[in-house]
Amino acid sequence: MVKPQAEIWLVWGDGACGYGLAELDSFVRHGVPVIAVVGNDAGWTQIAREQVKMLGDDVGTVLARTAYHDVAGGSARGIEVRTAGEVDGALARARELAPPGGPCW
């Protein structure tokens, strides 16, 4: 790593996460402590916004809800956040679990 003491954040939507989730395993295997934040709204919302406006239909943009925090638990640690009041605590816990230059869980 170029900056081993840098804090690394990965922010993605649930659609993109579904395509790249296996990368969490790569981070763990290589000891790269990453904090991944997934916006989980069960949809390709960036696409749906324009598609619904233009075509009046959300076909192909609706995803099944996936518990990505549980999926991450296969090789990493997952923290579920359900309310805005839980965000600060969850991010603090994530920073404890993946300190810069520290272990990756």
Q: Can you give me a brief rundown of this structure?
A:
40% of the residues lie in helices and 11% in strands. It contains five helices and two strands. The protein has a two-stranded parallel sheet with strand order 1-2.
Q: What does it look like?
A:
- The model has no long low-confidence stretch (mean pLDDT 87).
- The protein is elongated and about 50 Å long.
- Strands 1-2 form a two-stranded parallel ribbon.
- It is built from 5 helices and 2 strands.
- It has helices spanning 14-20, 22-29, 45-55, 68-72, 87-97, and strands at 8-13, 34-39.
Largest β sheet strand count, sense and barrel closure: 2 strands, parallel
What's the SSE pattern?
Answer: EHHEHHH
Tally of helical runs? 5
Strand order across the biggest sheet? 1-2
The outline comes out as: elongated
Distance between the termini: 17 Å
Which regions have little confidence, pLDDT < 50, spanning 5+ residues? Answer: none
Specify Rg, calculated over alpha carbons. Answer: 16 Å
Number of strands: 2
Specify the structural class. alpha+beta
DSSP strand (E) fraction? 5-15%
The helicity comes to: 40-55%
- The average pLDDT score comes to 87
List keywords for this structure.
alpha+beta, two-stranded parallel sheet, 5 helices, 2 strands
Question: Which helices and strands, and how do they pair?
Answer:
Blueprint: E1 8-13, H1 14-20, H2 22-29, E2 34-39, H3 45-55, H4 68-72, H5 87-97
Parallel strand pairs: 1-2
